[in-house]
Amino acid sequence: DSRRNTYLYNLTIYHFKKQEYLKVMELLQQVQFRDVLYNLDTRRMLLRSYFEIGAFDALDSLLDSFMVFIRRRRDLGYHKENFKILIKFTKKLLAIEHQKQALIQLQDAVEQTSAVADKEWLIEKIRGKIAGVRPNENVR
């Protein structure tokens, strides 16, 4: 069981790196880890995949359940704060529509915050939204 999960997890990472987000989501449905760091990483990949394909309702739901997961866990150490901040900034990014100044302020806030999980990705998505790039243009 552990070998299968590890294989599927690594296969998920492979497809994630290739930006094959639909395949990532399919594989993540089959992976079940007891290890908290694997759980955090699979949720992070799912968060990014939902964003990239433009599944914003599913992403919003994931953000809520992810926050509940983080709040309930006492064994996350510094990861707890990093992921809480990622969730907070992602929610703000989703809420801002066609407000360039608000997006610039959000980008500044992210850049000035040191403890953000996936900081570079988040800044990239904010810059893309400022430039008017739609998230799901090149999804495979």
Share of residues in helices: over 70%
Mean pLDDT, to the nearest integer, reads: 91
Kindly state the number of beta strands.
0
Indicate the overall shape. Answer: globular
Note the main sheet: none
For the record, give the distance between the C-alpha atoms at the N and C termini, rounded to a whole number: 29 Å
Query: How many DSSP H or I helices?
Result: 7
Quickly give the structural class: mainly alpha
Low-pLDDT sequence parts:
none
Order of helices and strands: HHHHHHH
Query: What share of residues are in beta strands?
Result: under 5%
Radius of gyration: 15 Å
Q: Could you walk me through the main structural features you see in this protein, from its secondary elements to its overall organization?
A:
It is built from seven helices and no strands. It has helices spanning 2-17, 21-28, 36-53, 56-72, 78-95, 100-112, 119-131. Helix 2 runs antiparallel to helix 3 (36-53) and helix 6 runs antiparallel to helix 7. It is globular and about 50 Å long.
What are the SSEs and their pairings?
Blueprint: H1 2-17, H2 21-28, H3 36-53, H4 56-72, H5 78-95, H6 100-112, H7 119-131
Helix pairs in contact: 1-2, 2-3, 3-4, 4-5, 6-7
